[in-house]
């Protein structure tokens, strides 16, 4: 091919905003990305990660051949050898007990791939043990939304509605660093006079006029207090008929300003100001990120936010009420179509007899042939080497991103056979017995569903390199290799996509009115139930999809979490993405692993800026340089999880939310001590930057 230039409109591989941009190609290779004003989500903005994303496509580390571990070493092999090895090692497990095979998917995969992965696990292999990394991401918010409304679409309104709100409470959502284009909607609201309150133990960047820095894991107390105060002021008027209101109000009736201020480590006056402004606002909006959700009580905490939004009359109003900000590129679609341990396509439930029958008929298998609910993500990892003997991982890097990662790596190493389908040599891929080289975003067709439930087309711009194969073909190959390929023969991708759309018909997340042709012209927010359906920008209205049609509000136990001398919390920085497989390889994207702590905390622990600190958590330890900064409140240390041997060496492998099975990524007891080594070269020992930052926390009497 000579000098052929072309431009393909597609979506970014990274976060849940799912910006559209133009990918420019020369001679079949991606050379440039330009934003487009025609993007329905971001209107022409693309963040620096998105702009840098094309460097992965032909990175020198790109996996271009299957790799098989022989005598302890990974060696390139042909596809035939790779698939034969799969058949030889996994076949006997499936014959004796299919539950011995686990499957682990991802919110980074397109809808079609997540659909196929669920079908592969249940119909192909017959194992119940499939779950995915969204368990570590959206499961608490999803569980809380489902139990109150029978529906889980992270935002029940288009992003543009945010501009209508006059008070925005950000609970543990670092929007400026994690979802940058969403800032334009916050700015639009602020320009119209809205107040923005950032509730985060760290003063993160952004547009907030008010910063409240509570201790991690105390958000439910703030929401409960506001509800109790509003009740006392006669300001409650439920958004719609609901069950559970009396119990919800009874659960918060003993909360007092001073008591909650003490538990959260903030000033009572700041809480009172917050409650007053919430009571006075016309259209307050509560948005949560992973801060309050990735907690041992994450589901209940989200319920407390829902209860406040609902009983104050704002839930379901365009731009008001409550919403959760989904994280991964297809974090929303990824939790709808059957890669979750309890779920069937279209957000159907594996325990619901009618849902099971529908999908069994659709797939042409007996209903009794569909397995039941399997292990959730972390339970699946902890069962590796025990009842789970082989595992397939696609689109995730749990050796870095799972909680208590040292323990998870130990379990992965104890497997008889680990298969990783990836595009780059992630830390997990490098532990595998079989590595299968898959496809990246720009190399495949498909759809993703963004944080507003907007379904968009991803378009193929280039082919896969070397011997790499498209992920969906690999999944079909594995079914055939195991002698279970009958239902995995698709003439082309379009046939798979058509099957996927049809499989969702009648489900809560119904995409059956969509087609590639419709999505070529515009985007649609689900449900889209027939081929003339305009989509559903606002899906939360009564009657809800609960058995009674009424909202089911959940009373939340208003317990104060035990207070540690030093609490770990974890999260992200602007320049890196997730476990870092993709972004750490990109020299244009910055960031270093460190532990952020307040000058007072550093003083208490005898630490200086830049000094290496030995940190130990419930399931491991690591050493990181101290980044002393007044942006973090005292008593809290923050570690980002983008690097091996960073945050997840310190998180607990076993502390899970009982409802959602979400790990407590954002609270752990931490010990910190200085090492005798000299200061780390990564950071200077000069006085920390940003000393003028205002963090609103309660000063402990000294
Ligand atoms: N740059 C970048 N962007 C990303 C990603 C990335 O890796 N890098 N990942 C994407 C994904 S998958 C996700 S899920 C989203 C996540 O997006 P966010 O939820 O915004 O990100 P986090 O940094 O995990 O957590 C947000 C904030 O919660 C605060 N926090 C910690 N504990 C608590 C608490 O107990 N209460 C409160 N109120 N706040 C607390 C942290 O200090 C942090 O600033 O980002 C998406 N976008
Ligand atoms: N301590 C702590 N830990 C956390 C969190 C936290 O806040 N704190 N957040 C959690 C959250 S919210 C999330 S979402 C997880 C994310 O963590 P992971 O699940 O590990 O996600 P990624 O790091 O994005 O890993 C994606 C892997 O899949 C590959 N990949 C990407 N796209 C494709 C594709 O299309 N096909 C194939 N075959 N491979 C692909 C990439 O190369 C990479 O190796 O981490 C969780 N872990
Ligand atoms: S905001 Fe998210 S989707 Fe948009 S360019 Fe950045 S990483 Fe990609
Ligand atoms: Mo996430």
UniProtKB/TrEMBL annotation:
InterPro entries: Asp_de-COase-like_dom_sf, MoPterin_dinucl-bd_dom, Mopterin_OxRdtase, Mopterin_OxRdtase_4Fe-4S_dom, Prok_molybdopt-oxidoreductase. The lineage of its organism: Bacteria, Thermotogati, Deinococcota, Deinococci, Deinococcales. Keywords: 4Fe-4S, Iron, Iron-sulfur, Metal-binding. One of its GO terms (molecular function) is 4 iron, 4 sulfur cluster binding. It holds the Pfam family Molybdop_Fe4S4. This is Molybdopterin oxidoreductase. GO terms for biological process: respiratory electron transport chain. GO terms for cellular component: membrane. Residues 5-61 form the 4Fe-4S Mo/W bis-MGD-type domain. PROSITE patterns: 4FE4S_MOW_BIS_MGD. Transmembrane segments: none annotated. The keyword Iron applies. SMART domains: Molybdop_Fe4S4. It comes from the Bacteria. CDD domains: MopB_CT_Fdh-Nap-like. Residues 672-691 have a biased composition (Low complexity). Residues 672-702 are annotated as: Disordered. The keyword Metal-binding applies.
């Amino acid at each position: 091919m000579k000098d052929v230039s072309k431009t393909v409109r597609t979506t970014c591989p990274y976060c849940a905003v799912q910006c559209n941009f133009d990918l420019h190609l020369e001679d079949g290779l991606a050379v440039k990305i330009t934003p487009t004003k025609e993007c329905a989500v971001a209107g022409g903005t693309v963040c620096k990660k998105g702009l840098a994303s094309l460097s992965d496509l032909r990175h020198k580390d790109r996996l271009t051949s299957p790799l098989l571990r022989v005598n302890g070493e990974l060696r390139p092999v042909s596809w035939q050898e790779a698939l034969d090895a799969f058949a030889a090692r996994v076949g006997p497990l499936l014959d004796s007990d299919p539950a011995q095979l686990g499957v682990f998917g991802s919110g980074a995969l397109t809808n079609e791939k997540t659909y196929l992965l669920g079908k592969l696990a249940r119909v192909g292999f017959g194992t119940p043990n499939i779950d995915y990394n969204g368990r570590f991401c959206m499961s608490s918010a999803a569980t809380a939304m489902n139990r109150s409304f029978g529906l889980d679409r992270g935002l029940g309104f288009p992003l543009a509605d945010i501009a209508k709100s006059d008070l925005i409470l950000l609970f543990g959502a670092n929007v400026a660093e994690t979802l940058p284009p969403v800032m334009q909607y916050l700015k639009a609201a602020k320009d119209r006079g809205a107040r923005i309150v950032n509730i985060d133990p760290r003063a993160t960047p952004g547009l907030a006029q008010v910063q409240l820095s509570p201790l991690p894991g105390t958000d439910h107390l703030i929401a409960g207090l506001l509800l109790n105060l509003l009740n006392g002021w006669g300001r409650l008027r439920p958004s719609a008929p609901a069950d559970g209101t009396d119990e919800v109000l009874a659960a918060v009736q003993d909360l007092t300003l001073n008591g909650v201020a003490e538990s959260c480590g903030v000033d009572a006056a700041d809480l009172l100001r917050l409650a007053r402004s919430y009571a006075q606002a016309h259209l307050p909006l509560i948005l949560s990120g992973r801060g309050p959700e990735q907690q041992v009580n994450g589901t209940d905490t989200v319920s407390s936010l829902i209860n406040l939004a609902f009983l104050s009359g704002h839930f379901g109003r365009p731009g008001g009420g409550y919403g959760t900000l989904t994280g991964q590129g297809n974090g929303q679609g990824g939790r709808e179509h059957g890669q979750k341990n309890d779920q069937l396509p279209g957000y159907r439930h594996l325990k619901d007899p009618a849902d099971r029958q529908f999908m069994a008929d659709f797939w042409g298998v007996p209903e009794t042939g569909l397995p039941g609910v399997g292990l959730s993500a972390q339970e699946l990892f902890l069962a590796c080497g025990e009842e789970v003997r082989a595992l397939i991982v696609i689109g995730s890097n749990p050796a870095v991103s799972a909680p208590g990662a040292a323990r998870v790596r130990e379990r992965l190493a104890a497997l008889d056979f680990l298969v990783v389908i990836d595009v780059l040599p992630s830390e997990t891929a490098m532990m595998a017995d079989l590595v299968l080289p898959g496809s990246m975003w720009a190399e495949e067709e498909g759809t993703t569903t963004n944080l507003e439930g907007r379904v968009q087309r991803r378009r193929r711009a280039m082919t896969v390199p070397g011997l790499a194969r498209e992920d969906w073909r690999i999944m079909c190959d594995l079914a055939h290799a195991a002698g279970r390929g009958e239902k995995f023969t698709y003439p082309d991708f379009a046939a798979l996509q058509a099957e996927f759309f049809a499989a969702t018909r009648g489900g809560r997340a119904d995409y059956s009115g969509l087609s590639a042709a419709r999505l070529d012209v515009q985007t649609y927010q689900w449900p889209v139930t027939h081929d003339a359906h305009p989509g559903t920008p606002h899906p939360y209205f009564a009657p809800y999809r609960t058995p009674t049609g009424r909202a089911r509000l959940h009373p939340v136990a208003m317990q104060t979490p035990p207070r540690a001398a030093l609490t770990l919390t974890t999260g992200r920085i602007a320049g890196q993405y997730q476990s870092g497989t993709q972004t750490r390889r990109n020299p244009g994207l910055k960031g270093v692993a460190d532990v952020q702590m307040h000058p007072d905390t550093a003083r208490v622990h005898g630490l200086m800026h830049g000094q290496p600190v030995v940190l130990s958590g419930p399931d491991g330890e690591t050493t990181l340089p101290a980044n002393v900064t007044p942006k973090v409140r005292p008593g809290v240390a923050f570690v980002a999880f983008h690097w091996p041997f960073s945050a997840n060496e310190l998180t607990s492998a076993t502390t899970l939310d009982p409802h959602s099975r979400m790990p407590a990524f954002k609270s752990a007891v931490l010990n910190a001590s200085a090492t005798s080594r000299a200061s780390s070269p990564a950071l200077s020992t000069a006085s920390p930057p940003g000393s003028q930052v205002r963090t609103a926390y309660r000063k402990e009497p000294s």
